[in-house]
Write a structure and sequence with these properties.
With 468 residues, the protein is mainly alpha-helical. Helices cover 80% and strands 0% of the residues. It has one domain (32-459).
């Protein structure tokens, strides 16, 4: 990437090493307009990096969907397992972003870079473990998800060819987290765009050109993920060398990263458990609702990660403000991010609800699947504003290092969701109506509970720990 910023570029040149131009000890609280500019300068580029994985699944859904309903249903199960695996380790990004931002706010640029390097080493180690375990557990996992005899071989084919990309995606998480903490969200955007293009072109070529079927789509995804990891790792390594930071594994730093990420891992486990249980419930409703669920879930993932771009901005700015010991600025950041999140949720939701009927034919030619998916898209469009608050407030609390509370809040939301999900499985009819009730339970019940618990926390001050 020839346009990657040089080792002495400033923040406006996208380089992650130097702190923002406002001094850490500045006593003035920025105006709303100034904060809006900072938020959008971070959030808009962050959007590209955040949607990388959902975009991979979205492209795969469009390519595989025209192979047949069984293939699309198989992709539904396999992608749910893969995305869940990657999401379990999202703490590699989120814990790193907050820690790096707080050190940067305190003026410790070298320490911030060291946290990023340690995060990448942790990601590499975890990636190798997950890769080996994934191959060993592929068949039992697909069986547990309740796949039919027609769906199982397609799910396994996609899962096995995609697994080599898992270590790459974990490195992407860690490196992206380090760059976000340095308030560089444009480099991950560039890498994500290239990765998405490689995945899209490779999927079409391997699925149809090489005749690999659904396995070709999985392989294209893995190639794109590995390429993204190499590109982002190179940027962090170059910055570390420029800053005089050792690239050798530091056991103490790696363990510190792991400890900081454990509460976020628990929080993510509750979220992914809810998502996997939702897929299992869709499976119980029949093959048509399951295939339609893949379409709705792909669009939901893309839209929800778009909202999460604001959470990334909140995370970086809150962490920096706390590190610089500026609580008034932190409060102002929270207010502005919630405002932007609400507006984004309303706007994105309206687009999905209005354009859902035009989207479904892009994924499948089956009229029954199209109808069910259309109704599901209307539901998520209406409920999308609810998702804005837990996404943004998760970012706020992660920036403050308040992972323990997020773990507790996630557990509470899951407890609220389980009886709602049980009611859908037991009493909802099959087909399109059942899918509608399933998404009402998830988007309204589960995310509504997360919104309430994080909002109550943000109203207090116990999460606002000043300093590194």
């Amino acid at each position: 990437m020839d346009d990657t910023p040089g080792p002495h570029a400033g923040p406006d040149d996208d380089h992650p090493v130097n702190p923002p131009r406002h001094a850490p000890d500045s006593p003035a609280t920025p105006t709303a307009r100034t904060l809006d500019r900072r938020i959008l300068a971070l959030a808009v580029p962050a959007l590209g990096a955040l949607v990388a994985e959902p975009l991979f699944v979205l492209v795969d859904s469009a390519v595989v969907g025209h192979l047949g309903t069984a293939e699309l249903a198989g992709l539904t199960l396999a992608s749910a397992l893969l995305v869940t695996t990657v999401a379990l380790f999202v703490f590699l990004a989120y814990a790193t972003t907050g820690a790096v931002a707080r050190r940067l706010g305190a003026g410790d640029t070298k320490g911030a870079l060291a946290v990023g390097v340690d995060g990448i080493w942790l990601a590499l180690g975890l990636g190798v473990v997950v890769l080996v375990a994934g191959y060993a557990a592929a068949e039992p996992l697909v069986a547990v998800m309740g796949a039919s005899a027609d769906v199982t071989p397609h799910a396994l084919a996609y899962l096995r060819t995609s697994l080599p990309g898992i270590p790459g995606m974990l490195v992407v998480l860690a490196a992206t987290g380090a760059l976000r903490g340095m308030q560089d969200t444009r480099t991950p955007l560039r890498v994500a765009v290239v990765g998405a293009i490689v995945n899209a072109a490779g999927s079409v070529l391997l699925v149809y050109g090489a005749g690999m079927g659904i396995a070709g789509s999985g392989l294209a995804t893995a190639i794109g993920q590995i390429g993204m990891a190499l590109a982002l790792m190179w940027v962090v390594v170059r910055a570390a060398r420029s800053g005089g930071v050792s690239l050798r594994p530091a056991p103490g730093g790696i363990l510190a990263n792991a400890r900081a990420g454990m509460p976020l891992l628990i929080r993510t486990l509750t979220l992914r458990a809810a998502i996997l249980l939702t897929v299992a419930a869709a499976t119980s409703l029949g093959d048509v609702p399951l295939a339609a669920h893949q379409i709705v879930n792909s669009v939901w993932g893309l839209a929800a990660f778009a909202l999460d771009a604001l959470a990334i901005a909140a995370q970086a700015l809150v962490g920096h403000g706390l590190g610089a010991r500026r609580p008034d600025e932190v409060r102002a950041v929270v207010r502005r991010c919630l405002r932007w999140g609400t507006l984004a949720g309303v706007g994105i939701g309206a687009l999905i609800a209005l354009l859902g009927g035009l989207l479904t034919p892009l994924f499948t030619s089956d009229p029954a699947v199209q109808h069910a998916a259309h109704l599901g898209l209307i539901v998520i469009g209406v409920l999308m504003p609810i998702a804005a608050w837990p996404f943004v407030l998760d970012g706020v609390l992660m920036g403050a290092g308040d992972g323990v509370y997020l773990a507790v809040a996630g557990a509470i939301a899951l407890v609220v969701y389980l009886p709602l999900l049980g009611a859908v499985v037991r009493w909802a009819p099959g087909g399109a109506v059942g899918l509608v009730w399933l998404w009402v339970a998830f988007a309204g019940g589960f995310l509504g509970a997360r919104a309430l618990t994080t909002w109550l926390r943000s109203r207090g001050s116990r999460w606002m720990v000043l300093g590194v």
